[in-house]
Amino acid sequence: MADTNYKDLPQHALERLQGLRNANHPGGVFTSDLSVNEFLLVREAGFEPIGMVVGSSIYHIGFQQANYRSNEELQVLSQAMYHARELAMSRMEEEAQALGADGVVGVRLEVGRYEWGEDLAEFIAIGTAVVSREKGNFRTMSGKPFTSDLTGQDFWTLLRAGYRPLSMVMGSCVYHVAHQSFRQYLRSVGQNCEMANYTQALYDARELAMERMQIEAHNEKAEGIVGVQLQEKSHGWGSHVIEFFAVGTAVTPTSSDHSVPTPQLILSLND
């Protein structure tokens, strides 16, 4: 590991990284949260796992009052959820950078709550740092290690298809869903009818999360996003406040003249 000063990393993290197998410490051991199949396929794709990398941020989430009968985004909460994840991701990337990794595969983003802090949440990013055995630039446009939440199998298939991961991209929207008035409730009792207020609220919130994820991919000069997940959670805010979180891996072709194998060929390569 280089002598660079990684100010966001605790001392014990630096000591752990010193013992991992990397260019500056070839006698170390690697760690990985990949399954056995994923580990073997990542190696088959030309990459060596060198260490599990972690980023964490315990974040105080502020308060924002919502209008009882209004569909609206709670921007204070949206910004908190996004920024806290970014802090965790950046610290995980910093560990990968310290190892001299080309990228991080199998990234998981988790949010945990603890009894000792009602308004606190821990945001954790975990993945396996890898280094390429072949010459070539697999880093992002800004020179950082790439990040991807693809499984080892999907990572292998992506590379075989002529694409490479650039970075995980994400978008968050915390939204307040308006309460029904008593009159609206009475009109719907015993009726088959769409609850237009709820439909519009959830539709808008999902679209905001998806749009923000796409903007990140556009900024990375990506061709597309694969493995997109759209998650919905309330995080204890109550039944009428929900977060929509969109996340995926932005990808780009490995060359300007690449050709994508047929699905039959990809299936045969997986066998």
UniProtKB/TrEMBL annotation:
Source domain of life: Bacteria
Pfam families found in the cross-reference section: YbjQ_1
Family according to the record: Belongs to the UPF0145 family.
Name this protein carries in UniProt: Heavy metal-binding domain-containing protein
Taxonomic source organism: Ferroacidibacillus organovorans
